[in-house]
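This is your field. Have a critical look at the following sequence-structure pair:

***
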Amino acid sequence: MDGVTATFSLTCDASALSVSYSIENRSGADVGLFNRIARIELDGSTSYDPANVYVDFSDEILFLRKAPLVVPSGLSAGGVRLPAVTLVPSGQRFAERFTLPVPVPVCEPMRRALLSNKAGGAQVVADRLVHARRVEVVLGAFRGGPDLQYRELFPAAPGVLAVWPPGVAAARQEQLTFPERLRSPLPVLDYRVATAE
């Protein structure tokens, strides 16, 4: 993305995987980040914690995504709810850090639904131990403009915004990607279809 500098770093030990990133905006326009993924807590409240991230695994790569999900082929979905947004005005910098437990459990609603669909509605759980040799962090970003409006979503955490119209922002999305090869295999808990024995 022209005028936007993204830096990422990753650290890992036996108990935690930590990702830090920063976005410096010198583009002359606001930049929105799709980095606020909602999660419903046990008490019914909504969390926009930085550690809310879509996690997937394929071909020994662990994907950490803060970006809108894509409906895979073979799955019917009425619509995909966009993550909430952090706005980075031109001339400013945004930084964030999040930490995930090791083994890292996958959490990708679309793939889970597709696996369940293909298995006739069977339960799908993330408890199959596999190992990642690479990590790829993906951050969805879009350029703002006078045609986009924002509203505060979460008074307890200022800066968590909804964008309108969401389709315009999603269509402008560019994905900032950071791949890194790991020094040693990283334990991951991937999906499996649970069947009665």
Observations:
- The domain at 4-103+132-185 is CATH 2.60.40 (Immunoglobulin-like).
